[in-house]
Specification:
Length: 536
C-alpha cells in the first residue's frame, strides 16, 4: 500500500499550496482529487457569470513573487475561466501535477492508533497510508440540492451552479427557471437573462447586493499593482478581512445624515465588500446597520422600475452583511428586462413539478431548464460527506453532532494527525480565503517541522483547548449581528444541521496573532506525543 508523510485531500487553492509547501520541506506527499483537474471550487463552479468578488490582485497567492510577476490579471474581478487558468498555471509552474491523483475520490479515512497514522480508502485508486492527513476540501464544495416537492417529475434539464457541465449548456431561447438568489444566483441571473428566451427567478429570500463595477484593468494600472505587490500584501496581512482595501475607518453613527449619505454613496460607487468593511459599527450596532441597509433598499427601488418587483427584491428580514453580501454586475437592472419575471416563493410557495412545469400554490410556470443556485453544505459538508474515523473508531460526523468545532479551526480533538485547512473556527469564509489558506498552510508547516525536529509522532488538539476556542468564537459572534440571519455561516440552510456560528469573526489579523502566540507557547492546547514518551 502506498505510504506518504502527508496525504492532502483536494487540489484547490489550499491543496496546491499545501503540496508545494510540504514538498519543499522534504515531506513526501500525495494529493487525492475527485475532479479531473486542479482548481477546486473554480473547477466545478462554471456557471455563467461565475467570478471572484474579492479583487483578483488580492484573491491570488502571495507566497511567490515569481508567480505574482508572471501572471497578469485582466479584470478587477477575474471570471472563472481566468481563475481556473491561474490555478493551472501555478500547478504547472510548480510542477505539482506529478504528485496529484486526479479522478480519485476519498471514500473513508481511519486513524490507526498503533501506527499513529491514517489509512485512506478511495473509489478508484485503492488504499493509502499516511502519517498526516490534510483536508484541503474547501468551505463551499458540497452542493446542496433542496428537497423540492415532485422534482423527480420534471423532464427538462436540471443544472446546479456548483456542478455546471464542463461543456457548457445551451440556454439560448429557452424558458429557464432559477431557484436561489445568493451569490451564485446573483451572478448567474444577469447573464442567463441575456441568453434565455424567458427567465423566471424563484426567490425565497432577497439578498443585499452591491455593484462590482467590474471591468478590464488598463495596462498602466496592472503594472502599478504589480510594482506595489509587497505593500498590498502586507496591508492585507494586517487587516480584518485579509484584503488590501481600506477598512473600518468610518463610524456610521458618528456621522451627520448628510455625511452618512455621502459615505454610503461613495462606497456604493467604489463597489464590492467595502460597503461593509469601511464601516466599523455596521456589524455591531443595529441602528447603524439599518441605516446602511436602508440605503441599499433605496438604491434597489431607484433601479427597478416596477415598484412591486422592487419591493420584493428589498431584503427586510436580516441585517445587511449577516448573510454574505453579494457583489453583482447588473443584477437589479436585470429585473427591468421584459423577459425576466420574479416570483416570491415565500408568499407563493413551490408546490410541485410536472414534466414541463414548476407549480406554486397560485401559479404554474412552463420551463425547459431549471437552474439550482441553492448553495452548499458549508464548512463541514466535505468533512462529513465520507467516513472519517478518529480514536476508537469515533466518526467525525458524530463528534460534530451538536455542532462543528476545531481548535484554531485546524485540528479536532480525537482526530490526531488530521488537519483541516480553513476549518470551522477560523476566519476562512469571512476573510479573503486565499490568504486564509496561505496562513493555515504556513502555520501548519511550521507545526509539522516542529514535530519532525522534536521526534513527535502524534499531534492532537486537546478537548478543553478546542472547547474554549469554540466558546470564544461563539461569544465573539454573539457580540455582532452575524448570528441574526438564517445563514449558511450558522448551518441554517441545511435542514437538521446543528446551528452553530462557524467562522471566526474577530478578523484575520487577530486570528493570525492568536495562532502565532499559541505556537510561541510550545503549541499550547495541542498534545504532542514524543517517540521517547511512547517508549517509556
Ligand atoms: O448559495 P447561498 P450560493 N426553495 O446559500 C435558496 C460563495 N460564493 O451558492 O435564503 C427556494 O448563498 C436560498 O434561499 P434562502 C459565497 O461565500 C462566492 O449563492 O435559504 N430557495 C438562497 O437564495 C456565498 O455566500 C462566489 O431563503 C431555496 C439560495 O438558494 C456562498 O458561496 C460566488 C431553497 C442559496 O444561496 C454560497 O452562495 C458564488 C428552496 N428549497 C458563491 N433552498 C464568489 O466569490 C435554497 N434556496 C464569486
Amino acid at each position: 500500500m502506498p505510504e506518504y508523510d502527508a496525504l492532502i485531500v483536494g487540489a484547490g487553492f489550499a491543496g496546491l499550496y499545501a503540496l508545494h509547501k510540504l514538498r519543499m520541506l522534504g515531506f513526501s506527499c500525495r494529493v487525492l482529487e475527485a475532479g479531473t483537474g486542479v482548481g477546486g471550487t473554480w473547477f466545478w463552479n462554471r456557471y455563467p457569470g461565475a467570478r471572484c468578488d474579492v479583487e483578483s490582485f488580492s484573491y491570488s497567492y502571495s507566497f511567490s513573487e515569481a508567480i505574482e510577476q508572471e501572471w497578469t490579471w485582466s479584470h478587477r474581478y477575474a471570471m472563472q475561466p481566468e481563475i481556473l487558468a491561474y490555478a493551472n498555471f501555478v500547478a504547472d509552474k510548480l510542477d505539482l501535477r506529478r504528485d496529484i491523483s486526479f479522478g480519485t475520490r476519498v471514500t473513508a479515512a481511519g486513524y490507526d492508533e498503533s501506527r499513529h497514522g491514517w489509512r485512506i480508502a478511495t473509489d478508484t485508486a485503492g488504499e493509502f497510508r499516511a502519517h498526516y492527513v490534510i483536508m484541503a476540501t474547501g468551505c463551499l464544495s458540497v452542493p446542496k440540492v433542496p428537497d423540492l416537492p415532485g422534482l423527480e417529475n420534471f423532464r427538462g434539464g436540471i443544472l446546479h451552479t456548483a456542478d455546471w457541465p464542463r461543456e457548457g449548456c445551451e440556454l439560448a431561447g429557452k424558458r429557464v427557471g432559477i431557484i436561489g438568489t445568493g451569490s451564485s444566483g446573483v451572478q448567474a441571473i444577469p447573464i442567463i437573462a441575456r441568453e434565455a428566451g424567458h427567465l423566471t427567478v424563484f426567490q425565497r429570500t432577497p439578498n443585499f447586493s452591491i455593484p462590482a463595477w467590474n471591468g478590464p484593468l488598463p495596462e498602466d494600472q496592472r503594472k502599478a499593482m504589480k510594482a506595489e505587490y509587497p505593500a498590498l500584501r502586507s496591508k492585507a496581512r494586517n487587516s480584518y478581512a485579509g484584503d488590501y482595501a481600506d477598512e473600518y475607518y468610518l463610524t456610521i453613527m458618528a456621522m451627520t445624515p448628510e455625511q452618512r449619505e455621502a459615505a454610503f454613496e461613495l462606497r456604493w460607487r467604489e463597489g464590492g465588500f467595502n460597503y461593509q468593511y469601511a464601516f466599523r459599527d455596521m456589524m455591531d450596532d443595529p441602528q447603524a446597520n439599518e441605516l446602511a441597509a436602508d440605503f441599499v433598499r433605496r438604491k434597489i427601488r431607484a433601479i427597478v422600475s416596477d415598484p412591486i418587483t422592487a419591493e420584493a427584491l428589498c431584503p427586510k428580514d436580516h441585517p445587511i452583511g449577516s448573510k454574505r453580501l453579494c457583489v453583482d454586475t447588473g443584477y437589479y437592472e436585470t429585473f427591468n428586462r421584459p423577459n425576466v419575471t420574479l416570483v416570491d416563493v415565500k408568499a407563493d410557495p413551490i408546490t410541485g413539478f410536472t414534466a414541463s412545469q414548476l407549480t406554486t400554490r397560485d401559479h404554474s410556470f412552463a420551463l425547459d431548464t431549471l437552474v439550482l443556485a441553492t448553495g452548499f453544505d458549508a464548512m463541514t459538508g466535505a468533512l462529513t460527506a465520507f467516513d472519517i474515523r478518529g480514536r476508537a473508531g469515533r466518526r467525525l460526523k458524530d463528534t460534530w453532532q451538536a455542532g462543528a468545532g476545531a481548535y484554531l479551526g485546524i485540528a479536532v480533538a480525537g482526530f490526531p494527525n488530521l488537519f483541516v485547512i480553513t476549518g470551522p473556527g477560523s476566519p476562512s469564509v469571512l476573510a479573503n480565503v486565499i490568504l486564509a489558506i496561505e496562513q493555515h498552510v504556513e502555520w501548519l508547516s511550521e507545526l509539522l517541522l516542529h514535530a519532525r525536529s522534536h521526534r513527535i509522532t502524534e499531534i492532537e488538539a486537546e478537548r478543553k483547548a478546542q472547547d474554549d476556542w469554540m466558546a470564544d468564537v461563539r461569544a465573539s459572534a454573539d457580540r455582532t449581528l452575524y448570528p441574526h440571519a438564517n445563514s449558511w455561516y450558522l448551518g441554517a440552510n441545511v435542514p437538521g444541521k446543528p446551528r452553530v456560528f462557524m467562522p471566526y469573526v474577530d478578523g484575520f489579523k487577530t486570528y493570525e496573532a492568536a495562532c502565532e502566540a499559541i505556537a510561541a507557547d510550545g503549541y499550547r492546547g495541542f498534545h504532542l506525543l514524543r517517540e521517547t514518551e511512547e517508549a517509556a
